[in-house]
Amino acid sequence: MIRRLQPKPPAPRRIIGANPPRSDGSAVSTSRLEVGRVGRAHGMRGEVAVTLTTDRVERVAAGAVLWAGERRLEVRSSRPHQGRHLVTFDGVVDRTAAEELRGVVLTAEPLDDAAVLWVHELVGAEVVAPDGTRLGVVAAVEANPASDLLVLDGGGLVPLTFLVSAEEGRVVVDPPAGLLD
């Protein structure tokens, strides 16, 4: 018997900075940011595999506080394992409790680091050219291998390589002629 392989559907584009919906359809608190997702349970003592959606591994360091919806989870221990982290949370003491966390989106409060440009600070900011011409408002930031893209409310895409400056609520970009036409 010959089995015909079905082509895989393309993976959806990942928008960074958007809060994912909960299972009841409402959005996760906008004051917290998605930092990871819980995978399967690992072992019998409450450890879970966490795939980080952030490059800040201190989010799963011992003592860090994460949120699963409105449930507060404090990290007891964490260690890297095959591209993920194996994490133990206070109060999650056995495999049954760990399996209940499977598929949960983990969120955390934003870090205060003035030297870093954060996605949640860009979304909603007015985008202007160096001469002050209004180009739109940042609706989202989309991950792209060459350069992350500012997605403007009018549908325009501006690579972050053209970012000149960013202040609270205002982003100055210097795109080449014709990019937003």
Give a verbal description of the structure:
By secondary structure, this protein is mainly β. The chain has two domains: 25-108, Beta Barrel (Elongation Factor Tu (Ef-tu), domain 3); 119-173, PRC-barrel domain (SH3 type barrels, Roll). The chain has two helices and 13 strands, in the order ββββββαβαββββββ. It has helices at 95-99, 119-122, and strands at 15-16, 33-42, 47-52, 65-68, 71-81, 84-89, 105-108, 126-128, 134-142, 149-152, 157-159, 163-167, 170-173. Strands 1, 8, 9, 10, 11, 12 and 13 form a seven-stranded mixed sheet that branches. A six-stranded antiparallel beta barrel has the order 2-3-6-5-4-7. The chain is elongated. The termini are far apart. Residues 1-29 have low confidence and may be disordered.
Sequence stretches where pLDDT stays below 50 over 5 or more residues: 1-29
Q: Cα-atom Rg, whole angstroms?
A: 20 Å
Mean pLDDT: 84
Classify the fold: give the CATH topology of the largest domain.
Elongation Factor Tu (Ef-tu), domain 3
CATH architecture of the largest domain: Beta Barrel
The number of domains: 2
Q: Count of DSSP helices?
A: 2
The SS-based structural class is mainly beta
What's the shape?
Answer: elongated
The CATH class label of the largest domain is: Mainly Beta
Query: By CATH's scheme, which homologous superfamily of the largest domain applies?
Result: RimM
Instruction: Classify the beta-strand content into a percent band.
Output: 35-45%
Q: Give the H and E element order.
A: EEEEEEHEHEEEEEE
* Total strands: 13
